[in-house]
Amino acid sequence: MHDDKNISEFKADTQHIIENKALNFTEALIPVGILMSFLAYNIFFAEGEMFGEYSNQIILLIGALVAATVGFFNKVTYNRMLLEIWENLKSVFIPIMILFLVGALAGTWLISGVIPAMVYYGLQVLSPEIFLPASVVIAAVISIATGSSWTTSATVGIALVGIGTALGINPGMIAGAVISGAYFGDKMSPLSDTTNLAPAMAGTDLFTHIRYMAITTVPTIVLTLIVFAVLSASIETSGSADVSNLLNTINNTFNITPWLFTVPLVVIGLILLKTKPLIALGVGVLLAAVFAFVFQADILNGLGESKINSIITSILTDTQITTDNEKLNDLFAAGGMKGMLWTIFLIICAMIFGGVMDGIGALARITKALLSVASSIFGLFASTVISCLGLNIIASDQYLAIVIPGKMFKKAFEDKQLAPENLSRTLEDSGTVTSVLIPWNTCGAYQSGVLGVGVGEYFIYAIFNWLSPFTTLLFAALNIKIRQLSSK
């Protein structure tokens, strides 16, 4: 999710797991069963329109209502549930502000020519034959440097989707490549929030965790790159003639200059200097507005009554720059802050559901049930993976998917004489990377909102993300590099 400490201000030591002895396992599963049933019906039979545009949000609220009803029958107070909802909502306040700024960023980077310039030069450098694996590598490098998959998507991710779309590549493939690279970097960067959180929960140190995590992560990213290389070599693209037409259209519509790259470079530089993301993205919006005045006066004049009005509109609401190429018309459109509202409502509803589930003790009960059936070493690894996946679905938050299993399974790993880095690696291999595969999880909602590609479109192509849990289970099943506690 918001994998930078400045983004979430997440404090692991303040997290408490609420247990409710009156609640049994079946009761804990009732809200989950109803939620999953409604979501499945909405996806497979109602084409996502069961309750209109905001179907997923309403379904999450229905799940929260069912969970609250179960809680009332088990003597959980109304105040307890409200308190947990409030704690969850507080934890996503900064991410919501960042989403608004990302919407503003997309609008101002469009009218200033930053995104068109990225597409213009990218079309000349990134050929279709290497585009997908190159996207994985570029996203991975930026994510390792910044420690944030969110920042990676909001900067190079948006540009890569634009370039690839102009080349005629499936947006789902491009988003999957970007997300695969971004989450590889997020896992392996010492600057990442989750990379610090997992070893803290398991009881090991940061660099032991990173070195041990490389054992499963490197083979997974290598396999991911091979698949994307094969895909890049086999997909049909628009061809060089179309690219030439696209370049001419972009050049005729915008004032394209390398100076426009100053804006994204300043934002990435500020993130590398550990500036708070809200400040870094805010500077990106203001700087892009200045560059719009300097370089794109004709664009601003054509969008509104005045240049100032055009910039304000691009920050707040929809902006469309029309060209003589239909493909570019789809690309050169931005929703501003307004375009992020659907995603923000989804996050808020997910936090309400997760808060009620935590408040009634359902999350702890489900995790304990998984722990109770972990008799073998492989069973312990499998239970941890299932717990992380389940909490990403139920609690809609990747931090809870690391914290709760981390606290619950720590002693079980010790009892099996397994070194704590086994647990920390498993938490990241299943908790961190799969969060982006859940549409209503904060990570899935963010990435789909920023990249403009639905989770269902990129799911199968986010190869690194869904392959990672299988890799960690394969290593556990074959007893490869499963470190034991030292005899001392």
3D structure, described in words:
This protein has 488 residues and is mostly helical. The protein has two domains: 5-93 and 341-452 and 466-477, no CATH class; 105-338, no CATH class. Helices cover 73% and strands 2% of the residues. It is built from 25 helices and three strands. It has helices at 5-8, 25-44, 55-73, 78-91, 93-111, 114-125, 131-146, 149-166, 171-188, 193-202, 206-234, 239-253, 262-272, 277-295, 297-303, 307-316, 326-331, 341-359, 362-372, 377-394, 398-415, 420-432, 442-451, 455-458, 463-477; strands at 50-53, 319-320, 333-334. It has a two-stranded antiparallel ribbon with strand order 2-3. Helix 8 (149-166) packs parallel to helix 23 and helix 19 runs parallel beside helix 21 (398-415). Residues 1-14 have low confidence and may be disordered.
